[in-house]
Amino acid sequence: MAAAAGALPAAAARLGRAVAAAPEARLESVRALAGLFREEQPREMAKESIFRDLLEILMSASSEIEQAYKDSCELVDRDTCLLLIAECFRCLRNACVECAKNQHAMRNLGLISTSVHLIRLLHGIQIKEELLLTALRCSLQFLGNIAAGNGDSQNSIWKCAFPDLFLMCLTYSDKKIVAYCCMVLFTCLNSEKVRELLYPGNLTVALHVLKVYKEQLESEWSFLIVTDHLLKCPELVKALYAKLSNQERVTLLELIMEKVSEKNPVTSEEMNLFMRHADFLAGCFKEKCEAVLKLTSAADAEDEEALVAIRLLDVLCEMTSNNGQLEHLQALPGLLETAIDTLRLTHLAGKQAVNIFTATHTMTGQEEISHPAVGFKSHLIRLIGNLCYKNKENQDKVYELDGIPLILDNCSTDDNNPFVNQWAVYAIRNLTEQNERNQELIAQMEEKGLADNSALESMGLEIEKQDDKLILRSVRKKPS
Length: 480
Hints:
mainly alpha
């Protein structure tokens, strides 16, 4: 480290002399500095004059490229020019690492606006060779590093680059350029800037981020943009959802699922966000839930609208498993009714013809059903059970909607609905807890032969007669 620090003055002087020299000489002097700036001490010792010289070299290269393409002539030493641009950005990128002093110096010199201009210029060159791609990658890495932990730089990049530069780079054919663009965008975003994505024309940036995540699942930055920024604006989620294809909606819902499944403690502000998302998603489910009936036809097994409905149900099940969101969803008009109606429709569809909603138990345990609707009825019963947890009003609503016989009719083992028996047990327990009318209904059904006694026993329930009154009570569950 001491050797690197000692070499800095000579390297800086060599750079100063090289500014007016041939491209090869400039390249070597910049490369030497880029290597020195990998270490902390040289970064801290760097003087503004170094960055001024690098700015001059970049501006000179920019002018040469601009002039050559304006005159439609071949740039002399084009390869060296592109190498030099890439090396300048490497040098600046390295000098920014955990060094606010250098970040400020570069921004004040105008290096951000110069870089953005140069990126646009390079993008306009209709060649896709590696040297050009490397220069673009290094330029975006520099913007990411100058913005890291520096609000002034983030604002400066936003002012110069949003939205056109982000749109340009998010749609680039090179995956690394797209990833580095996402890194810069993630670093610059805050709650105020996220709201700007709602403005006409700007929503396209958010749409492209989601496309990047869908097409490049290894892109961590696009994932973080959605989960840490976009999902914090319910209005933006609604606007995005309206513009997305059904496939993209499934992707967005999977990202929402990731967020609501997190076990970290949430603030009251975050809980309020989740509840606003819940209102919207419950509305979408109520509107689209019947689309799953298309899945009764083998030809429509991949119907995209139906897949959205399935994923919406998954998210609502997860949301109602969280005590903080449960109470809000329990009071949501129409959600419980929709769940019962959908369970009734799918149950009826499975009885009218053999399809994915028909109960079956012929599997050996070695097979696996890959149909997208596997577990759909289980999840409906889970949602109903959640919505009735310690909630007398909803317990009574299920009674009035004839939901209890429906759930009891779905409590046998079903290979198309793993764990349906367990979720039915859970739902019946929640429906009968401190609710004599619901207990009595089940007891009367069993006495009349309308409820399967062995099914009740497998749930750990039994009917007992006390003073001419039938009582449903818990017993030790019999092994199945």
